[in-house]
Amino acid sequence: MIVTEWIDGTGFDDVCRLPDAVRDRYAEIIYRFFYGTARDMGLALGDPHPGNYRLCADGSVAFFDFGMLRPLPGGYLAREAAVSRAVSAGDEQAVIGGMHALGYLPGNPGNWDAGLLLEYMRALSWWLTVDGPLRLAPGDVWRAAELLRAADGRTRFAPLRNMTFPAEALLLRRMDGLLFQMAATLRASAHWGGLLRELTEGGETISELGAQHAAWLANRHPRAPGRGPGTPMALARETDDRLSGAVPPDAAALVA
Questions:
Q1: Which residues are paired to 54 by β-bridges?
Q2: Are 213 and 247 in contact (CB under 8 A)?
Q3: How far is CA 202 from CA 30, 46, 61, 123, 206, in A?
Q4: If you count Cβ atoms within 10 Å of the first and of the last residue's Cβ in the chain, which end, N or C, has fewer?
Q5: Distance set, CA 132 to CA 25, 122, 201 (Å)
Q6: Is residue 104 a contact partner of residue 166, using CB atoms and an 8 Å limit?
Q7: Rounded CA Rg of the chain
Q8: What is the pTM of this model?
């Protein structure tokens, strides 16, 4: 027997025409859902396509279609976060060491140009290094690609063509890319670097949404081993509660 539930909501194209505040909140909820799932449940959801979520009338967001996912090794997201932190800090050796340990840089890490790699990583993640809120635009989707495709960029970054792609990162990188495209297409604003640090490193909560979600999780479950807020068992139970209608819609939208 297949059981389904009909969910009414506003599609992505229509959300793109709504006021700034609505689009910003919508984009942040989507980010929190996908990165929260990776952090708290150890699952990379590889298809954050705009057709897989809808804005509900009460301001919550309904998510569906979880057919493309991959379990992440323990601590994997934290190790990637350490690389992001090193890129922001300009720590060339930490970038080299972290990316080699994750499997992006084959061979002897000393054979890689640390300065060039840092420049490359900053070009790819320029929007995460902005100190404060940044309103993205649809054209930003191509900003890093244009830099890397330019004649001088192709020549300068040619030594990095031997980088590899670890299997563990495949869906995570796909998730990253589609989330960025979503936010840029929405023309959404957030402190993107701060939001990523909060969601991957347990950094300071940057918004009211984050504070509400943290408080809801803290108050919902006792802190018993394997059953506290944010653990896979707790989140699985919350998923069951949502399907039965036991979780308020706005809170449920923020739980992976």
A1: 62
A2: no
A3: 18, 22, 23, 25, 11
A4: N
A5: 16, 17, 18
A6: yes
A7: 19
A8: 0.82
* CA angle (236 as vertex; 233, 242 as ends), nearest 5: 145
Q: Where are the alpha helices (DSSP H) in 90-188?
A: 92-102, 114-124, 143-149, 151-156, 170-186
Helix or strand holding residue 190 (H, E): strand 189-190
Judged on CB neighbours under 10 Å (0-12, 13-18, 19+), 162 is exposed
The yes-or-no verdict on residue 228 having pLDDT over 90 is no
pLDDT, tens digit, for every residue of 121-157?
998 899 998 889 999 999 998 887 777 777 676 788 8
The count of C-alpha atoms lying within 13 angstroms of the C-alpha of 155, restricted to the half-sphere facing its C-beta, is: 2
Dihedral angle over CA of 152, 158, 159, 162, nearest 10: 160
Alpha helices (runs of H) in the chain, residue ranges in sequence order? 12-15, 20-41, 76-89, 92-102, 114-124, 143-149, 151-156, 170-186, 192-201, 208-220, 232-244, 249-252
Of the given ranges (172-176, 181-185, 219-223, 227-231), which has the lowest mean pLDDT? 227-231
Query: Contact 40/228 with Cβ under 8 angstroms?
Result: no
> Which of the pair, 81 or 5, is modelled with greater confidence?
81
- Are the beta carbons of 172 and 181 closer than 8 angstroms? no
CA neighbours within 13 Å on the CB side: how many for 37? 25
Angle between helices 76-89 and 114-124 (to 10 degrees): 100
- The angle that helices 232-244 and 20-41 make with each other, rounded to 10 degrees, is 130
